[in-house]
Design a protein that fits this description.
With 227 residues, this protein is an alpha+beta fold. The protein has one domain: archaeoglobus fulgidus dsm 4304 superfamily (archaeoglobus fulgidus dsm 4304 fold, 2-Layer Sandwich). The protein contains 6 helices and 9 strands; from the N terminus they run ααβββαβαβββββαα. A 9-stranded mixed beta sheet has the order 3-2-1-4-5-9-8-7-6, sandwiched between helices. α3 packs across α4. The longest helix has 18 residues. The chain is globular and about 50 Å long.
Amino acid sequence: MEKEQEKSFELQELCKKYNINLEALEKEQKNLAKNIELKDTINFNLADKFGAIGSSFFENKIISSAVIINPSLETVEQEYFSDILRFPYIPGFRAYRELPAMMQAFQKLDEKPDVVFIQGHGIAHPRLGLASHFSILTGVPTIGITDSLLSGTIKSEDIIFNNKKVGKVLQSKQGSKPLFISPGNLITIKSAYELAKKLIKEPHKFPEPMHIASKYAKEVRDEIYKK
């Protein structure tokens, strides 16, 4: 009980410091979530441009990378954007911290990917996951993948939230935590799961676009800030 009160107090102080109205942001997330469409907007079996957004952090800065790879898992394009963080880390509200830089990096790409993988939640979120938020703003199908569950329960290989199936669990690497896969927007649970599974290349845990994007973001961070 004391720990919960302490966390609540810390959150209140954080919101005061950054002038954040969480109730207003929750309302915005819920309103935006009404735009989510869980349907395959293209035949994802024919997709050949797989995108991903990766982010890395250094002190009060964020480095977001955007990459596109082809069916041979080769990088065809990669861009990045670095900026100062203007929003603190608050579980459930990552989009307000990371989306500005993610959008800037994505907009620098010449090509438009058929689908974008994002390390975060899609519809497996109590309101609006990072992957869903990104898709609503860009109009690009997204898949949210993470190795920690924010809400819901696991039943067999399914993620259940509010008595609805919102994603699937994938044990992509033996001995590692499982991946929680949920569609962000403009793609079905089935297609999101199949694409994620298809693009995993051993020994990497996450689908290859995500691995490449994360690696690139860290390389840029080290080159810029760790000289």
